[in-house]
């Protein structure tokens, strides 16, 4: 523990703690060290799904996760799954315009009751 005069009081041989840093200041370095840049870059596809899909679709389909450049979306039923399959090209264009081209290459629709586990 540091004294008001700046000297250190504590166990002999131990250094004082370094100053705390905010998570935001160390997170970019950790993301890079763990090679998670792509995983972080595609996350907005999940969080922005309601804006990308629109209110009507978002009530019946929920983005779950991204698996190797494929956005996995849980859908209420077979009717919505068929409709969204036809809308896949437009959805992919919207995703690319929102988060960047090439980050998401496909959208996979799965039944909502049989949600797959994230990899």
Q: How are the SSEs placed, and which strands pair?
A:
Blueprint: H1 23-33, H2 37-47, H3 49-53, H4 55-58, E1 61-67, E2 70-75, H5 78-99, E3 106-111
Parallel strand pairs: 2-3
Antiparallel strand pairs: 1-2
Give a written overview of the molecule.
The chain is α+β, with helices and mostly antiparallel strands and 119 residues long. A 3-stranded mixed beta sheet has the order 1-2-3. The model has no long low-confidence stretch (mean pLDDT 80). It has a domain at 42-114: DnaA, N-terminal domain (GMP Synthetase, Chain A, domain 3, 2-Layer Sandwich), CATH 3.30.300.180. It is elongated and about 70 Å long. 45% of the residues lie in helices and 16% in strands. β1 and β2 form a beta hairpin. It contains 5 helices and 3 strands; from the N terminus they run ααααββαβ.
What key phrases describe this protein's structure?
single chain; 119 residues; alpha+beta; GMP Synthetase, Chain A, domain 3; three-stranded mixed beta sheet; 5 helices; 45% helix; 16% strand; elongated
Sketch the topology as an H/E string, one letter per element.
HHHHEEHE
Number of strands: 3
- Unreliable segments (pLDDT under 50, ≥5 consecutive)? none
What is the CATH architecture term of the domain at 42-114?
Answer: 2-Layer Sandwich
Percent helix, as a range, is 40-55%
- What portion of residues belong to β-strands? 15-25%
């Amino acid at each position: 523990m540091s004294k008001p005069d700046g000297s250190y009081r504590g166990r002999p041989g131990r250094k004082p703690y370094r100053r705390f840093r905010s998570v935001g200041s160390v997170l970019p370095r950790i993301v890079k060290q763990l090679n998670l840049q792509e995983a972080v870059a595609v996350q907005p596809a999940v969080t922005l799904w309601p804006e990308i899909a629109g209110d009507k679709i978002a009530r019946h389909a929920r983005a779950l996760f991204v698996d190797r450049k494929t956005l996995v979306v849980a859908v209420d039923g077979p009717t919505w799954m068929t409709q969204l399959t036809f809308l896949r090209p437009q959805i992919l264009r919207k995703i690319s315009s929102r988060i960047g081209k090439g980050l998401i290459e496909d959208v996979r629709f799965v039944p909502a009751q049989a949600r797959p586990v994230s990899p």
